[in-house]
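## retry 2 of 3
previous attempt timed out at serialization; input unchanged, resubmitting
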Amino acid sequence: MKATAKLTELMDSMEMQSEDWLYRYDRKTGKVAMVERSTYHAIEAQEDEDLDESDEEVVLARAMVEDAKGRFIDLPDKFDFHEYHQMERFIRTVEDAAVADELWRAIKGKGAFRYFKDVAARHGLLDAWYRFLDEAAKAFVIRWAEFNEVPFEDDTAGRRK
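## retry succeeded, writing output
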């Protein structure tokens, strides 16, 4: 039986990724595995003589580097998801043309994400935006899981961003 991923863990991992950490889905455990990029790159470059081989993160990073059987899969990140595109999609759902126009103006130029949220909040749309974004992220992660043949459990009921 294949390990099963939880959608919330996949969604949270996509959102939380940073330059310092490497996130991958582990087919063996059904969990998201994360290691410091510096540890991963040290092992990859064979500059790992100072690493503690008994450290769980080092063991996991080594398994990722040496993975030839597809145990680990790169997770999508927030840049793959394109939150800016999601803002455009959300604006198209806003029925009040004046509010939609203000939102369109908000996403042009510097500070688009902050300005968009400010305008949405001013018009009482912030909760609707977060629900829309969460549903879009869920659909995106489901497509990723299906494409990569990752069995998943939809544990998103009641999820609040």
